[in-house]
User: What shape does this take?
Amino acid sequence: MEMFTHGVRLHYVQAGQGVPLLMVHGYPFDHTLWQPQLDGLSDIAQIIAPDLRGFGRSDAPEGAYTMDAQAEDLAALLDVLRIERTVVCGLSMGGYIALAFWKKYALRVRGLILVDTRAGADAPAARQARLDMVEQVKQHGSRPAADAMLPRLLAESTHRSRVDLVEFAHAMMLRQSPAGIIGAQLGMAERPDSTTTLSTITAPTLAVFGAEDVITPAGTEGRLLAEAIPNARLVVLPNAGHLSNLEQPEAFNAAVREFLAPL
Ligand code: MLT
Assistant: This one.
């Protein structure tokens, strides 16, 4: 399916029936990141999984994809689907966007699922690393971005025994367009600190982290979310890294199932 917002064509898939569940992928991925949830949760949720601007089969306009602009894209998609309130689930960059969505559209949020993400802005060195990557991608295409992510992305046990998942994740990153990677990096580099927003979150919140996530560690980033958000619960999944939904789909889906039940 596809829709247009601000002249940008956004592709999305839908599956299942039940509580609306908007699934927002991370960088540099696309909606297929959520395949285990599309397969495993469609009996209890109406899942909407877009390709964010710049990724998958969506258009990749020039310029920075700010978290606010991406939250506006999601609100426009919900309008097209006539969904007023939804659970928003975002992984990593998807979590940054989910927090931006909360700031702009709190009344539309029925619950939040924050996966392997963080509330803070980039430190200066991290921002500079993004700008350096933008230059590399301009010169060499998407491969430097995919190759830089891969070694730190997944748990040690995933790297050792799930070659299929390693290849799946690498291929997903390699097929993203340079324009999309650049737009997302520029947008993330300028994202604001959302730490003070956390105490304003009144929606029920589930934080899910891989125990071996080295990009957004559970012990620091996950704990901060769980402690600062009033009605939050933290679930840490063993043998999972930054893509915990993909690495431990059964445990991930069980946690989401339990969270959605009362909503
Ligand atoms: C992601 O998985 O979305 C990225 O790790 C986010 C980031 O680069 O900060």
